[in-house]
């Protein structure tokens, strides 16, 4: 007899279908939350200015992974996502008259302007 097991994620905020599990830490405590695409974006946008101004603490590099509702397998890493986001911010900043280096931390001023763009 064959069996098919399917895992479905439910957004922990609003009960809608979740598309990923977001892992994060605050004050030494680890958390994870299942979120829809929109709620995951809201979480990341809300923390973006704080993350941009923070310094990394010790320990292994890692972070969030997207977990598809049907498989539970990790499909994206924080490092790749951060790199793509940084490239997009730098491209936007240059196109809008900001001076931004090609490497290193992006200033809070530029990140704030990027997040508030219309």
TrEMBL record:
<dbReference type="Pfam" id="PF11774">
    <property type="entry name" value="Lsr2"/>
</dbReference>
<protein>
    <submittedName>
        <fullName>Lsr2 family protein</fullName>
    </submittedName>
</protein>
<dbReference type="InterPro" id="IPR036625">
    <property type="entry name" value="E3-bd_dom_sf"/>
</dbReference>
<keyword id="KW-0238">DNA-binding</keyword>
<feature type="compositionally biased region" description="Low complexity">
    <location>
        <begin position="60"/>
        <end position="69"/>
    </location>
</feature>
<feature type="domain" description="Lsr2 dimerization">
    <location>
        <begin position="1"/>
        <end position="58"/>
    </location>
</feature>
<dbReference type="Pfam" id="PF23359">
    <property type="entry name" value="Lsr2_DNA-bd"/>
</dbReference>
<feature type="domain" description="Lsr2 DNA-binding">
    <location>
        <begin position="82"/>
        <end position="116"/>
    </location>
</feature>
<dbReference type="InterPro" id="IPR055370">
    <property type="entry name" value="Lsr2_DNA-bd"/>
</dbReference>
<dbReference type="InterPro" id="IPR042261">
    <property type="entry name" value="Lsr2-like_dimerization"/>
</dbReference>
<feature type="region of interest" description="Disordered">
    <location>
        <begin position="60"/>
        <end position="82"/>
    </location>
</feature>
<dbReference type="InterPro" id="IPR024412">
    <property type="entry name" value="Lsr2_dim_dom"/>
</dbReference>
């Amino acid at each position: 007899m064959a069996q098919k097991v399917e895992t479905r994620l439910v957004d922990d905020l609003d009960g809608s279908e979740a598309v990923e599990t977001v892992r994060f830490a605050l004050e030494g405590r680890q958390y994870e939350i299942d979120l829809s695409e929109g709620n995951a974006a809201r979480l990341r946008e809300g923390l973006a200015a704080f993350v941009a101004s923070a310094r990394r603490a010790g320990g292994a590099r890692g972070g969030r992974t997207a977990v598809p509702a049907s498989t539970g397998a990790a499909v994206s890493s924080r490092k790749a996502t951060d790199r793509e986001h940084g490239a997009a911010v730098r491209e936007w900043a240059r196109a809008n008259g900001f001076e931004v280096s090609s490497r290193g931390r992006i200033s809070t001023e530029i990140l704030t302007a990027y997040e508030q763009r219309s």
